[in-house]
Amino acid sequence: MGERCDLFIVDESGEYVDLYAHWLGYPAYMTEFILEAYDFAKKLAGKQKHWLSYPEDVASYLIGYEAFSDHERLEKKLKGEYPFSIHLDLRPRGRIRDNDERLYILRVSEEKWILEYYEVPDSYDRLEDYKEKVLIFRLEMGKEIKFEEGNPEEIVDRLAKWRMYSEEGKRKEIEYYRKKLEEIKEVIRKFCVKKALS
To answer: Residue 119 belongs to what domain range?
Structure first.
């Protein structure tokens, strides 16, 4: 099935690189992935902090981090000890138009990265074509971590413009977003605890 998404990496001038993921799109997983990848990229960039502000470099850090974080399975495959085919999930989007209504925008600069998660009615070729989008959360990573979440009732009201809800369906959807946002906050909390202990 997958948790498909588009990920646009955008610099301060508005230039961007677009990536696609088939499995990474679930919000709690993407949140954890980006938090970990940001730490990874900062360590690799070292004193060359400007690399953290270039969409092309950030894309390479993200793809590299995915491989690094899955190195045990990749090593087994290279040794002939893993029977299944492997390809990395995060990749240049190219002609893929299959995002399952998930859009991530990663705004990058030397000092911080900001991850925004939106739900959208369709997938488009260019970031500027996403006219209709509903912000679910915004996560800022820099000297400190800041998290802003949408209100579940307002999220569902805005999504109702292109999704059909019965009254019962609307109540369930509000609860779904409430749980999803709590799950993301728990991911952030665990990440912060792990960082404090390391």
So the answer is: 5-151
